[in-house]
């Protein structure tokens, strides 16, 4: 009798577990299909909890002209999620003693006009540098298609007037991460592409991640779109322009490898890993809710580490909650359809 009762309990638990997983899948499907239609540019979503993949699906179209449906393994441009990789690269060099986070940028770029201000790598990493964001400059349209060296790109914005004193305000700034990429090259003696490929992609086993290129044949690359009274191809941009602030390509599986590499300290020791996720403060002591390359926000009263991306034709978002080890990432191939809210909603479903 005890044996029968035990078997019944085990069967009951397994059945409930199966229904729970099925209900979760149905809820996530509903969130995504309300926004991404089968005939339109699509998206891929991956959700993981405590090391187990609980959701991995593709929606919509990868290529409208070739009528190719989206697949989970397809590769997207991830835009500003690139900043995570740039920040970790700087932390790697700091851990190796090749630079310090409180070093002034003029130590590496002596002719950079700071107007008498002290601008450090920390200011660049936390978007508190006061440097003007070059993507807000009207003249960016004049260089968007040009292949520029990092120095030429820095020269494009370095003489712009400052917005505030370093450390006084948080103001999201792509220019700061361009400068960090240039400094990574100066300090390491490698191009930014070489550095992240050798020190991050290879170490983390990310075989489907790249510094973006229009020339290279990239397997499983999806096409990017925009909506202008109907879907059209994304505008062309030279990848030398977003550079270290937004030029990485990847897929959801590799981004999970990236998250796992951070969690297991494959790339940085625990002390330097923690620096990426510290909620830094302004000069007046106000928290900025940003670390180095990650926003620090709340979902269900739990701190999440997240960052999105936006580049011509693409949107991205990745969310990680450390106490329950929840990771959710969404990648979209239309700049008209962001996965941000859905990604956070999925994370909320997984966080107890």
Automatic annotation (TrEMBL):
Start and end residues of each Beta-lactamase-related domain:
40-336
State one Pfam family annotation: Beta-lactamase
For the keyword Transmembrane, the answer is: no
Q: Where is the signal peptide?
A: 1-21
SUPFAM superfamilies with a match to the protein in the record:
beta-lactamase/transpeptidase-like
Residue ranges the record marks as coiled coil? none
GO molecular function list: hydrolase activity
Keywords of the record, alphabetical order, are: Hydrolase, Signal
Protein name, entry field: Serine hydrolase
Source organism: Flavobacterium panici
